[in-house]
């Protein structure tokens, strides 16, 4: 069973969550898990102005995702930061290049799942994941979220991301807050849950 994690991360929060998703998916027996990133669409000049250049360079070694990568996966777990309550433009552009796969039904029946990140606690995590699901449904994918059997999403003793729709993290207004242990646990749980379901489907 092949699981693919496809992400974009401007400042590294989604990147950290993607690693945790990979750990979780990789804990399922027989799972072959890979991470790739979607192409950057912003120029170096803009990334420097946005204070994102160092974080981008640190991800330079991560392979850029291709259409073939999507086709060969049994499960695809997408990670995107929130942009005005939606997925980021880099991810949108990548998905908008999958029309050829849609016309052939290449992604039909694959498992799809989404995790996210936002600056603020109520800054659009749920709308980002749920609006992302629309694209996955058009592609015929089977959507998997983060069930309440991940008890960490009911915590009231600390501020935390995570909802039934998927794992998430809160980066803070200045972007300095990195994913908490609870948020990373949610990402690991989601990765394992997706891989377990995909393994059952594709046994
Ligand atoms: C153009 C733009 C729009 C954004 N919109 C939102 C938003 O609607 N709500 C929010 O909480 N954060 C918003 N953010 C903050 C990002 O979601 C945050 O920087 C991101 O989650 C950090 O993850 P990353 O380091 O993986 O990129 C926005 C950031 C940018 C640059």
Question: In words, what does this structure look like?
Answer:
This protein is of the alpha/beta class. The protein has helices at residues 13-26, 44-49, 53-57, 67-72, 89-96, 99-104, 125-138, 181-201; strands spanning 2-7, 32-37, 75-81, 111-118, 142-143, 168-170. Strands 1, 2, 3, 4, 5 and 6 form a 6-stranded parallel β-sheet that branches. The termini are close together. The site of flavin mononucleotide (FMN) has 19 residues, from helix 1 and strand 4.
Question: How would you describe this structure in keywords?
Answer:
203 residues; alpha/beta; 6-stranded parallel β-sheet; 6 strands; 39% helix; binds flavin mononucleotide
Inertia-based shape: globular
Number of helices: 8
How much helix, percentage-wise, in residues?
Answer: 25-40%
Largest sheet: 6 strands, parallel
Strand content range = 15-25%
| Assembly type | single chain
Number of strands: 6
Structural class of the secondary structure composition?
alpha/beta
**Computed CA radius of gyration, to the nearest angstrom:** 16 Å
Write out the distinct hetero groups bound to the structure: flavin mononucleotide
What value does the average pLDDT take? 97
The helix/strand order is: EHEHHHEHHEHEEH
Low-pLDDT sequence parts: none
Distance between the termini: 8 Å
